[in-house]
Amino acid sequence: MSEGTYVEGSWYFYAPNKGVAIFFTVAFCATGVVHAWQSTHYKCWILTPLFPFCALLFTVGFVLRSIGGWHYDILNEYIASLCITYAAPPLLELQNYHVLGRILYYVPYHSPLHPGRVLTTFGFISAIIEALNGWGASYSVNQSLPENQRAIGHGLIKTALLLQLVVAACFLLLAGTFHHRCRKHGSINGRLSSTLLTLYISVALIVVRTIFRTVEYFGVAAVNLSKIEDPMTLSPLLRYEAYFYVFEGATMILNSVLFNVRHPRRYLPENNKIYLAEDGVTEVEGPGFEDGRPLWQTLLDPFGLWSKDKASQAKFWEKQPTQVEVNAADQGKESPNDHK
């Protein structure tokens, strides 16, 4: 592992540790294979497609980092390694949005907004953040641009990183509000609690990783790398490889394994029209949510505050159910609907 000393010609600052990089390559490959099997076994490729895909991205990223242990002076491999590795966490956030939306479908009467709007709303905001990030990166790394334009690029990336933390806070607020309503009205059970707890842990891991990236980047942006005379004056976050493996590698492998062990489909039914009755025990198959508004309107008004079309917000769970099934939901077991 790097001891904080500069290796001549290395784009990483140090020579990447080959053994640790190979370990994470194998680990992400293994968890990705398990995720692919789980998506097939639980018939939930629509719900959890990004778990195996992100594991694949991390696998490729760490393969390139392993190669960088021998060829740390090759710029293209360095850029590809970082870009592919850094591309996965935002997608994992998107996956969490999808899982929360699926949870809201399961207990629709306590959902603060239409469950389908969770993915579209947070996904839309995340797309804007990623656009800022990409725009900023194109400015900050272009050495042919004047210093003031590169500074704009650094500012855009800083803004994007801070906005990621704000979005994570809003996401937790939404999940927490829903959780509080469920507990207040006695609609909580073991299955629902387990799924929400898993989501909270995942968000916490991603937030820790994002805070690290934010602190790391603010330290880099404050330094003109083209004019630096002594590399040892750089931030320890850049000089010591251990920080990368702890806050980037370890947090993300833990997140992936977390969902292997506590996969959402272990606790949620396959059909999103099946919801938990207000007694917290009975599962009911209803008509499902509908929203006849145009997509642009749902993005601008996800809570339906200004919508005149109240039909989409009809409380179908208050009507006589067409099908009722009693299950062991309060014990956190797999849904009986899973194997029909």
From TrEMBL:
It comes from the Eukaryota. The chain crosses the membrane at residues 20-38, 50-72, 78-97, 118-136, 156-178, 190-212, 242-261. One of its GO terms (cellular component) is membrane. It is a multi-pass membrane protein. InterPro entries: RTA1 (IPR007568). Coiled coil: none annotated. Keywords: Membrane, Transmembrane, Transmembrane helix. Signal peptide: none annotated. It is found in: Membrane. This is RTA1 domain protein.
